[in-house]
Design a protein that fits this description.
- By secondary structure, the chain is mainly α.
- 58% of the residues lie in helices and 8% in strands.
- The protein has one domain.
- The longest helix is centred in the N-terminal third of the chain and has 43 residues.
- It is built from four helices and two strands.
- The C terminus is likely disordered.
C-alpha cells in the first residue's frame, strides 16, 4: 500500500518547520534546565542520605532521572531537503506532513511526558538554559 501524498508550498513548509524546530529547541532547553535542577536536588538528597548512613559499604546511589533528548537533527535534515529542492512546491507523504507540518511524531507522547515531568518544578527562572 502506498502512502498518500500531497503537494505543499515549499516556503510555507520551510516557515512552519522552522517554527516547529524553534518550539522544540525551546522546550528542550526548558526540559534540560528542569532536569539539571531535579538532578541537583536528587544528588543533594543522596549526599544527605550518605552522610546519615552508618555503613557506607551498603549505600546504593539512586538517582532515577533520564536526560532529556532533543530531536533537532530530524528537523534540520528535512529543512535541508526542503531548502535544496527545486520549485515552489514539494510533494510530501502523509507521514512527512504529520511530522514536519503538524509536529506530530512517533516520539511526541513521550516527549510531552518528559516536558511535564521536568517543567513541573518550582522556579525555573533561577536556571539559565545553556
Amino acid at each position: 500500500m502506498h502512502d498518500k501524498t500531497t503537494t505543499v508550498d515549499k516556503l510555507k513548509a520551510i516557515e512552519t518547520l522552522k517554527a516547529n524546530r524553534s518550539k522544540h529547541e525551546n522546550e528542550y532547553k526548558t526540559a534540560l534546565a528542569g532536569y539539571k535542577k531535579k538532578l541537583a536536588r536528587r544528588l543533594q538528597s543522596e549526599l544527605d542520605r550518605l552522610n546519615t548512613t552508618a555503613e557506607t559499604n551498603t549505600f546504593v546511589l539512586s538517582i532515577g532521572l533520564v536526560v532529556p533528548e532533543h530531536h533537532l537533527n530530524e528537523y534540520d535534515e528535512y529543512l535541508a531537503l526542503l531548502e535544496w529542492s527545486h520549485g515552489e512546491t514539494i510533494e510530501v507523504t502523509m507521514d512527512e506532513f504529520r511530522h514536519f507540518i503538524m509536529n506530530n511524531w512517533s516520539w511526541s507522547r513521550s516527549w510531552n511526558q518528559t516536558l511535564v515531568f521536568y517543567s513541573d518544578i518550582d522556579d525555573l527562572s533561577e536556571i539559565e538554559p545553556d
